[in-house]
UniProtKB/TrEMBL annotation:
GO terms for molecular function: kinase activity. It comes from the Bacteria. Belongs to the FGGY kinase family. It comes from Liquorilactobacillus nagelii. This is ATPase. InterPro entries: ATPase_NBD, FGGY_C, FGGY_Carb_Kinase, FGGY_N. Keywords: Kinase, Transferase.
Length: 535
């Protein structure tokens, strides 16, 4: 598309801004109404362990958002010589789940408790039994009930409970709403009705420990809105929060705020029944869209929804790439000590390519990349370990391969439940995340680990922020065309018309090697347990 036409689209507000607050990076993507990316902005941030609770500063969140927006505005000015004053639609997504309780005055009552915390085991277990529905530890309702069981004083003052995406949306629009996919990680939903489960709301309110509070759970949760529906407008205060220069106009339509799992599904066109995607980063999760209910409740399987409310089986692991990144930092330090300047992309590429020389079982090495606790393997805390027998083959190739094997191990354990016990069928499984920037290597490892073909989609490189921008464009599409097209059809017919993809199938040697590894990995979990108790 020529610059003049793009410039006209920008001036006329035929654009969609997607902002996503991920676990290690905040990113914003501005696209046109035909889904082209015209500008991006990024900001690195990191969680911190504060009083044994994983958290992020909300001030840092706003600093990151403003930095991302400023980069986009500067890029537009540089490329098109125009100021960014109009945006058609704005959408926010963020790490799912967690705990953000606010008072009537809008004060955050305790620091943000993220998905990474494994501190709600008692609450999650009791609620799972009460609801007869799996409540993972990271869900908002588990955090709330654990705070109640702990008799935390702030619970008396709660007026509003939301997620990180819901909080940012509230401040930009003034609306206490949430997208249905993000809502499904807060509290059980009532099937396709698009609302919280009435029976679960009643059961929770009737709990003896809950009755002493003046609020009801249904009064403090955000209102649910499905994809494609408007969720308010950008206020003047919200515009200033985005654009510290003050030139952005208010009035942009706001898309329903979503979780990063939902935007990943959109970015990989995996919202139709029997499709699925895997997203890897600090954490990892798979999302398989169901065509029938699961046969029973599984502690390791969440039932959440697509952004338009279709049930999804989700396997979520708290750990994935963090330990790999830590080792890469050491290798880079050593390279710098030798006087070798190497970029991160070059470092990862050279290290990953070395795995082609590894033994298929990683030489008998075992790695546990647990920077934090891991729900799948019942670990309450993290103690990153690499373990070997004297006869194990400690080579650089095996060392790198075992860390890739380990990154996918908890996900493998959860996916085996879906495939082997629930007999869930998938027509496609698309992967996204930074590990796949180095072509083939991590993709092939994942295909071998799950013993299923893995597809990488070029459009997924921008990830969740682009997916959020597309969800924003879906709102404008429905408004402008007076339509109520479903999300799957919109993506197939309007967005992913000619997608560029690459699929790798499992290799027999890799499959057998991973089977040996995962058997040793499971047998060695007692070592991780001992490390947690001892250190």
């Amino acid at each position: 598309m020529n610059l003049q036409l793009l410039s006209s689209k920008i001036k006329e507000g035929k654009t969609s801004l997607g902002i996503e607050l991920g676990s290690t990076r905040i990113k914003a993507v501005l696209i046109t109404d035909d889904f082209q990316t015209i500008a991006t902005g990024t900001y690195d941030w990191e969680n911190e362990l504060n009083n044994d609770v994983w958290t992020y500063s909300l001030n840092e969140a706003w600093k990151g958002i403003q930095s991302c927006y400023a980069q986009i505005a500067a890029d537009i000015q540089s490329k098109f010589h125009i100021s960014l004053t109009e945006i058609g639609v704005v959408g926010v997504s963020a790490m799912m789940h967690g705990y953000l309780p606010f008072s009537k005055e809008g004060k955050l009552l305790v620091p943000f408790r993220t998905w990474r915390n494994n501190i709600t085991e008692k609450a999650a277990s009791q609620l799972t039994s009460l609801f007869e529905f799996n409540i993972p530890q990271r869900w908002s309702i588990a955090h709330l009930y654990q705070a109640i069981l702990n008799d935390e004083k702030h619970v008396y003052d709660i007026d509003y409970l939301t997620t990180l995406a819901g909080y940012i949306h509230w401040k930009l629009s003034g609306k206490k709403v949430i997208g249905i996919g993000d809502a499904s990680g807060m509290f059980p939903l009532n099937g396709s009705a698009g609302e919280y489960s009435i029976s679960c709301l009643k059961e929770f309110n009737n709990l003896k420990a809950v009755k002493k509070y003046s609020w009801k759970i249904n009064d403090i949760l955000p209102k649910i809105i499905k994809a494609g529906m408007p969720a308010g407008k950008l206020t003047s205060n919200g515009a200033r929060l985005l654009d510290s220069s003050g030139i952005l106009h208010s009035g942009s339509v706001m898309a329903p705020p979503e979780g990063d799992a939902g935007t990943g599904m959109v970015a990989t066109n995996s919202v139709r029944e029997k499709t699925g995607n895997i997203s890897v980063g600090t954490s990892a999760f798979s999302m398989i869209v169901l065509d029938a209910p699961l046969q029973r409740v599984h502690q390791d399987i969440d039932v959440v929804t697509t952004p338009d409310g279709i049930d999804v089986a989700m396997v979520h692991t708290n750990n994935c790439t963090s330990d790999i990144n830590s080792w890469m930092n050491i290798f880079k330090e050593f390279a710098n000590r030798l006087g070798i300047n190497i970029t991160n992309n070059e470092l990862y590429e050279k290290a990953f390519l070395q795995t082609t020389r590894a033994d298929s079982d990683a030489g008998g090495l075992i790695s546990y990349g647990y920077l934090s606790g891991e729900n799948i393997t019942r670990m309450p805390a993290g103690r990153p370990l690499i373990v070997r027998r004297p006869e194990s083959k400690l080579t650089f190739a095996n060392f790198m391969l075992v860390h890739l094997y380990s990154a996918f191990a908890p996900l493998k354990i959860g996916m085996d439940i879906l495939i082997n016990e629930e007999n869930v069928k998938m027509q496609a499984l698309i992967a996204q995340g930074g590990l796949f920037k180095t072509p083939v290597i991590a993709q092939q490892v994942l295909a071998d680990a799950l013993n299923t073909p893995i597809t990488i989609m070029k459009s997924a490189e921008e990830g969740g922020p682009w997916g959020m921008a597309v969800l924003g464009a879906f709102v404008l599409f429905n408004l402008n065309n007076n339509l109520k097209k479903n999300l799957a059809d919109f993506l197939d017919q309007n967005v992913f018309v000619n997608p560029e993809t690459m699929t790798l199938t499992p290799e027999e040697e890799g499959v057998e090697g991973y089977k040996k590894f995962i058997k040793e990995y499971k047998n060695g979990l007692i070592i991780e347990t001992a490390a947690i108790k001892s250190l």
